[in-house]
Every structure is written in structure tokens, then in C-alpha cells.
Design brief:
By secondary structure, the chain is an alpha/beta fold. It has helices spanning 17-26, 42-46, 63-70, 93-100, 158-164, 181-188, 210-230, and strands at 11-12, 15-16, 34-37, 53-56, 80-84, 107-113, 122-126, 129-134, 148-157, 193-197, 234-235, 242-243, 248-249, 254-255, 260-262, 266-267, 272-273, 278-280, 283-284, 289-290, 295-297. The relative contact order is 0.12.
Length: 301
């Protein structure tokens, strides 16, 4: 990312990437949320909202190693276990419900149709049947031409996961334990695998570069503002207005161009915010008019 903080903590519309994922999982009443992390990130992750457990992965030995070290925290009474990469896609609650519904396989994976230039793992099929996932660094030139990619979201039958996770090996270019190798292990052991292709509407792809972050930020901003408009907020110049994901704007409010509403700000009903204001972590009382150029930080107006 060429940035000075860990990718999962980079803000997307005012909220760390990983908090978006956690919030959306929690929104569909999945509350036994375990975050696996390095020692250097545990303090920051353990205070994030809705995280039930944090588990330190002592050695950076891959996604399979991350799952292995978290097995002791899994609730084995749960039939299924959802696993999402920490830098994985941000899935809206409606799509998450769809991904979890009607699951009668041993493993379900989320895929997306991507560019041949994508560095995501490639989904390998034989007569339309999934037989494996090849990580990009291990893929042949022919495999890299495949456009169906692994999105980094998995739904496992918990018993099948626990019984097979120890079969992972480091036989790859990075000498890591790849969680994706379980796809081939399941296939060779006649365990059932299905897949769902990621929908573009309401979902946000994984971010691996600053360019991808910028693209996703624009997409999320558009969605945030369209939802406000549908709910009865008048945006005079939407393209020059910026509103963080966690901000709340009351109905029948009017927001002029150049306005930035940041953090946990709350605007009451029928407010008017004139041009070029910055409102950060502040409350605006209902029926208020905020003068042009006002800057409010941790304030009440």
C-alpha cells in the first residue's frame, strides 16, 4: 500500500477497513467474532467494537496458520464457521445472509470475476466442478489467465474444517500454510464444495493498492449519499460533499457543496448546512442552520 499504517486500519469513508467487515458480520447477528492478528496489532484490534475474542498468530505462517491458532476459540457447537480475510471484501448484510443461506455443502467459497492482472488466487475448475484454488504466486502462466478469482470469504462445516486443517503443508513458494489449499484437500476427500459469485451492488472488493482504495472510497461515498437522498436529504452538490459512513443526517436536511461531515457526527432533522463547512464528531440540533465556512470539532451546535 506504500502507506505508514497497516492496511486493515486504513480508513475507508472514516472507518478502518476491518471495522467495516466486523460491523457487517455483527449486523446479521453473528456475535462469536474472533480476530486473528499479530502481536503488534492486538491492542488496536481488541478494543474494536463487536470483537469477542482476539487471538495472536505468533508466526506469520499464512492464512491456514491463522485458522489453526484460533481453533481453541471456535464454538464447536456451531455447525458452520464463516472465515473472512482481514483485508477481504466488505459485504453488505443482505449479501452476507444470501451467502450463508441454504448451505448444505462442506465448504462454500466466494468468488469474483476479475481482471487477468489481479493478484488474487485463481479458482480451478474441472467440468465446472471446483477442484482447487491456486495462489497467484504459485500459478502457472495458463492459470493466471483465469478470471474467476478467490474473494477471501469461506463458509465451512465446522467439523470438516477441524478434521482437515492439520493436513495443510508449506509446499508453496511462500512456505506458508494456505487456507485455500483446503479446497483441493476437500475435493480429493470427496467433501462437497460450492461457490457463490460476489455481486457488485452494495459490496466492496478487497483493497490491495492505494488506487483500489480510492476507487472503493468513491463507490462507498456514492452509496452513502444515494441512501441519504432516498431517505429525504437534499444534497445541493453531491460531488463536492463528503460524508463518513458512521455519520447520521436527519431527514429533510439540506447540505450545500463543499461540506465534510466526519466521524460520529449527528445532524438532527431539518438542518441546513451552508457551503464549505467541516463537522467532525459533533452534534447539530434539529432545525439548525450552520453558517458557511463553519468548522465544528467535538462540539454541539
Amino acid at each position: 500500500m506504500n502507506f505508514n499504517i497497516n492496511k486493515i486500519f486504513i480508513p475507508l469513508c472514516g472507518k478502518p477497513l476491518i471495522q467495516h467487515i466486523i460491523d457487517n458480520v455483527h449486523s446479521i447477528n453473528l456475535n462469536n467474532i474472533i480476530v486473528v492478528c499479530s502481536q503488534q496489532n492486538i491492542n488496536q484490534l481488541s478494543i474494536m467494537q463487536y470483537v469477542k475474542y482476539t487471538c495472536v498468530q505468533p508466526v506469520a505462517n499464512g492464512t491456514g496458520g491463522a485458522v489453526l491458532c484460533s481453533l481453541r476459540l471456535l464454538d464447536k457447537t456451531n455447525t458452520n464457521t464463516l472465515i473472512i480475510n482481514g483485508d477481504g471484501p466488505i459485504l453488505c448484510s443482505a449479501f452476507l445472509k444470501k451467502f450463508l443461506s441454504n448451505f448444505d455443502a462442506d465448504l462454500r467459497i466466494l468468488t469474483n470475476i476479475n481482471s487477468v492482472h489481479s493478484t488474487n488466487g485463481r479458482v480451478l475448475r474441472q467440468k465446472d466442478k471446483i477442484i482447487g484454488i491456486r495462489e497467484y504466486k504459485d500459478a502457472s502462466l495458463q492459470e493466471k489467465k483465469i478470471t474467476e478469482c478467490n474473494a477471501g470469504v469461506y463458509l465451512f462445516n465446522t467439523q470438516a474444517l477441524c478434521q482437515n486443517i492439520s493436513k495443510l503443508t508449506r509446499n508453496n513458494t511462500q512456505c506458508e500454510l494456505y487456507l485455500t489449499d483446503l479446497v483441493e484437500i476437500f475435493y480429493k476427500n470427496n467433501l462437497s464444495i460450492d461457490s457463490i459469485v460476489m455481486e457488485q451492488s452494495g459490496n466492496y472488493i478487497s483493497v490491495n493498492t492505494m488506487h483500489e482504495l480510492s476507487v472503493q472510497n468513491v463507490k462507498m461515498q456514492k452509496d452513502i449519499k444515494m441512501n441519504l437522498i432516498k431517505n429525504g436529504v437534499l444534497l445541493i452538490h453531491p460531488n463536492s460533499t463528503y460524508i463518513d459512513a458512521q455519520a447520521v443526517v436527519g431527514v429533510h436536511s439540506t447540505i450545500y457543496g463543499g461540506v465534510h461531515i466526519l466521524g460520529n457526527s449527528v445532524l438532527g432533522e431539518e438542518c441546513i448546512v451552508l457551503p464549505n463547512c467541516v463537522i467532525q464528531n459533533s452534534n447539530i440540533r434539529p432545525h439548525s442552520t450552520v453558517p458557511a465556512g463553519t468548522i465544528l470539532i467535538d462540539d454541539v451546535f
